[in-house]
Amino acid sequence: MKKIIILFLFVAFGSLNAMAEPISNHAQRTLIVYFSQPEEVKLEGVDGVSGASILQKNNQILGSTQYLAQVIQRHTGGELFRIETVIAYPTQHEPLLRYAEQELRDNRHPELKAKIDNLADYDRIFIGYSIWWYKMPMPVYSFLQQHDLSGKILIPFTSHGGSRFSDSLREIKRLQPDAQLITQGLAISREDVADESTVTRVSDWLNQLANVQQ
Question: Deepest of 10, 55, 95, 99, by most Cβ within 10 A of its Cβ?
Fold first, then answer.
């Protein structure tokens, strides 16, 4: 299982920005968008088992980014939107690795199953993903290219294998130049996502965001 982490590597992470208003005051205007691709790996059947891109928590099998999205949703009261592709990704690790590599080389942005038609209903959008080959997964590129997020507050989060956000914050800013990107994102190692402390870390992070000024 650990080899999965080694193969999805990342680099550094940028500086911090700000946010003016408490998130909790705008729960009805909050959207949590995420892309998560759980892999078919054997877990031990014990609650709290964590893997590179999958975890078992409360008897549920979840992608690690998916789990973080759910925790954020519980704290903010926002709505969840899962980015899904028309053509499903391989669920076995090695085929997925090769597929993602070729997709990146081809600069191929996959077709998504659904778009968000009611973006006007939201002020701030959390956006979550892992990093594949030093980049955001291509479905996240598709999402950012197919939606106009001008004027929205974008708040990134990731379950990472060692390099946090890599270059993804710069890419989000490039693709959505008229959105306000909060670079004080949440980055939690995939190995730690299933820890009991994760819920507290998410809560603390949200509170810090609420206290930061633009």
Answer: 55
| pLDDT tens-place string over residues 69-108 | 999 999 999 999 999 999 998 888 788 888 989 999 999 9
Q: Running along the chain, 214 residues long, what does each successive block of 10 average in pLDDT?
A: 37 33 55 86 51 57 87 94 94 84 94 95 95 91 97 94 89 97 92 84 92 54
pLDDT of residue 23: 45
Sheet holding 60-62, edge to edge: 49-50, 55-57, 60-62
Q: How far apart are CA 183 and CA 25, in angstroms?
A: 21
How big is the chain by its Cα radius of gyration, in Å? 16
DSSP category for residue 178: T
Which CATH number goes with the domain that contains 56?
Answer: 3.40.50.360
Which two three-digit tokens encode residue 66? 């998916």
pTM for this structure? 0.80
Q: Is residue 2 assigned to a domain?
A: no
**In the prediction, which pLDDT does 1 show?**
39
Tokens of 25: 């005051």
φ/ψ (deg, to 5) at 181: -90, 125
Q: Rounded CA gap, 145 and 157, in Å? A: 19
Contact between 160 and 189 under an 8 Å Cβ cutoff? The reply is: yes
Whether 45 is in a domain gets the answer no
β-pairing, 55-57 with 49-50? antiparallel
Nearest Cα to Cα of residue 96 among 54, 158, 125, 145: 54
- The C-alpha atoms of residue 95 and residue 197 are separated, in whole angstroms, by 33
Give a yes or no: residue 115 inside a domain: yes
